[in-house]
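Reopening this ticket.

The earlier resolution said the output was attached, but the attachment link was broken on my side. Pasting everything inline this time so it's all in one place.
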Amino acid sequence: MSHDIDLETPDRPSDDRPRGLLGALAMAGLNVSAVLIMLTMLAISANAVLRYVFDLPLHLVIELSGFVFLFMIFLGAAGTYLRGGHIAVELVTANLPPLARLAIRDIAMGLVGAVYVGLLIWGGSVATWRLFDAGAKSVGTTPIPHWIVMAIVPLGSVLLMFAILSRLLARLRRTARLRGMRK
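Inline output:
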């Protein structure tokens, strides 16, 4: 009996990638993250040339590159997840029977990811609020309020949570269809 869903091969990352607003926001975040990586690389390279050739270091570059690192991670997390670029343990799940593989790889790991990201949203929100309330600023060349930098943690994590939940719901629907075909 032929089915349109192959149980034996792993899913392609784009099979249930959200379209619409979530997909657009996730991919925009991924693209902004890539641009930030390139700009940071160029700025650090320019700083090295200015420092060692002209003895004119740009202190702001090193300070800002540390802050931008958080933006690179949290803006790109949802897009990376939706493209299948997240860390996976295929060694364990590849040898399981198809339905067990779907249950563990697609559902259990999605639930664990959602719990972890939920804690990240909560912890990041608390930390951001505390930094805002304290008025903490960086002590470098340019005093930047720490809450502005920290705010990307809960914001990027919310986008990642939507991506995880969207994929989890799609996988639950897929698993229900597969179970229905087996009966």
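Reporter confirms the inline version is readable. The chain has one domain: 20-182. Residues 114 and 165 are 7 Å apart (CA to CA).
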